Structures
1.
Amino acid sequence: MLTLPPEAALPHELTTATAGPPITVPRPAPIANRVLSDGFPATAEGALGWLTDFNETALRGGDPATYARAYGEAALPHAPSLQGSGPLALLTSFRNEAGIRPGELTPGLTVTYDVSQGLIKGTAEGGRFAVVCTLGQLSFDYQGQSTSMGIGDCQALRWTGSAWRIAPGARAAYAACAWPGSAESVAAGYRPLNRDGAR
């Protein structure tokens, strides 16, 4: 995966160039009492749709405890350790700097992750294994201060026969982080997403 300087993730000028045509991904409705949605098809686009839903759900609110719960629900036995997760490290760092403990409810804190681009790095085993990446805008609003950055996440996913899950084995290479729609995002291979269906 392309290595980009930290400033590539900060808001800056967009480009009209693309890395390819948009990728259409499904986006089914959530299931009651579950962090994650299922019902995504056994395709590379389905895997990317699943990771998009996973990241938007797990990062909403900016709580490492929520992300850890989602990861625990999503990871198959012998999947990469949660502790090596880039998104978890980012959320933990933000909370530490703000003096907010994991799991602590904080009035006035809003954190969202909106995925707008993605990348299908490859598939294997007849499409039952896929490495996919999301790129979106992670926004923190707290005590009148706002910060936004472009954050990528790549995961190796396994089709279980009924759902996509984080696969056992080696961790996928860490994603390039770029401001969505920027020249750097295009250089990293991210393509726009067409999101089909209701959330």
2.
Amino acid sequence: MSTNRILQLTSNRYVLKILSGVGANTYGQLVTLLTQLISVPIFLSNWGVEIYGQWLIISTIPAYLMLSDFGVGTVAKNKMVMHAANNEECESRKVYNAAAIFTGLLSCLLLVSVIVVISTDVAKEFLAGDSFDENDVVIAIVFLLLQVIVGMFTNLKSAVYTVCRRYAEGMVFVHTARLFEVFLSLAALILYGDIVSVALAGFSGRVLIYSIMSIRLFWLTQTYYLYPSLSAFQSALSLLKLGGAFIIFPMGLAISIQGMTLVVGSILGAAAVAQFNAIRTLTRVLVQIGSIVNHSLWPEITVAFQQNNQELLRGLWKNSLFFVAVSSSLASLFLSIFSEEIFSMWLGEFELDGALYGLMLFVAIMSASAQSSWIVLMATNNHAKFAIYYILTSILSVIIAATLMPIIGVISAGIGLLLSEIMVLVVSWKMSNQVMDSLGQRRNVSDRLNVS
């Protein structure tokens, strides 16, 4: 099939769904950009560099709880969409039920475990530092953990919206939840200024939007509900087998982002953490541009794969690669030219490390481009082998940074991240092509069997 035919298929059958998804994810990226740009100066003006740096260290702890579903939520979403593509609504409901039960039980178990660990004197002393009361830190982390747990169930609810052909609506709820939790946290920071109030406000914002989302979904469909049974637990175990590799992605991301934050903080101090995170926050706008398209294509990639439509799948992939490469490069050029003006308007007095900033822009371009390929692997549950490469490169980036940082300073973080993203780009490109080639072979075998 020609490229023109591929583009025609894409535009005729999927343009409205893709555009609505792009719109929802554009809103999501605007939420991310807005909250990050606003929150950094407000935190700095109210707490100062040292206290804000300590808060960044504390807030890394709940991020690791996102690993608690062992990838079950993402695998469940893929399988629910695949069953829906084959008009298998009953099987889709079973997958949802199994994922919800598994996520709830395991989250409770890990929540208790984390509370026990952070309640020790050594952990409280490290996390509180000289900035916060030790008991307040424990209470704040509990609220942050609960916020993450509700977030996982919010994402699972969004999978049902996707099955109901309302992907965009579900994602709007997910992004609005983030908006509310950040704005309420900032309001608590300005009004009260203590760490517990900030954490509680963020948790309250997440719960509010999750409740509205659940009520809305009840009016759309009443078929997705919890019914504990032996078969549900068996289904959860089967999801765990598929989702085991998915845990590596948030783990790798946590190592790359939160891990790098901890390395910079432990070697160079909280002030360096604030500087590095400000630069990374701005440069990752490029990655967010790519995410707008790539995550909108996720459900369509899953359906195309399930229906053995190699031409459509390859067309979606190529168009995504082209758009992300061009848009991220142009955005990088803009951020380079107007860097001084942007940081001056955003943070006021800020000493910009030009070398680190330029390096992190290049890191973001590599990351955005690689995402177009590895999203194909994740959307089709062909991610297991790639996940190993992903976490190994994330670990390598932190090791490189930690080794070079005492010698050349914070720029070593950018060097480690750049080498990691280049390796991820090459490996994901190769593996995505292998998936699409195997899809064509699978369809040829199916055609021969039908003829015979």
3.
Amino acid sequence: MIASQETQRRPRGSLSRQSIGAAALRVIERDGLDSLTMRRVASELSCGVMSLYSHLTDADDLRGVVVGQLIDRMDLRPCEGESWQDATRRMLSTYADLAASFPRSFELLALAGADQRPVAPNMERLVDLLVAAGLTEEDALIALSVIDAYASGFLVIAVRNRPTAASVERAAPHQHDRLARLHHLDSYDVGAEVVIAGLEQRFEGRRSGRKQ
């Protein structure tokens, strides 16, 4: 019996959710988010489309695997003696680094539902990180909600609107230089400090009994 094309191309058992997710990331970063299909990922892996369905249920599951790959690239574990403010800065910095490294894939993580796997376990870990850094669980949940909303909104717009040669050519002579600071990471860091200061004020006000 002549071996099938799929068997010739890829050894049996060499696929996994991890390898599929890594291939999907490569496809997105090279060709854009709209290119993420089972067929394109199968082509990237030199296998048949049906092989993917041995590890995935559908296209939503494929996107979830990509989100999991992005989460795995964030090293956010509690650090002994770290304040919640510094833990927040570390979270925001790590998130920004991820957006810079995977600008086309980042949106899948940023816009994923917090109650969905693999996002939910990651959010639980981030709550635990803030609690370990000194916040109550209630305050940690408030802080994470604000941090996530700020970082996701800022960074999604930043990566969607990063300058290209075509956009620079279309801009008026002074326009690109003038607007280059919009959604720049320097502005992101300023916003991070504003977020932290606002949370500090809220938490201190609650402890002192002032109505917030």
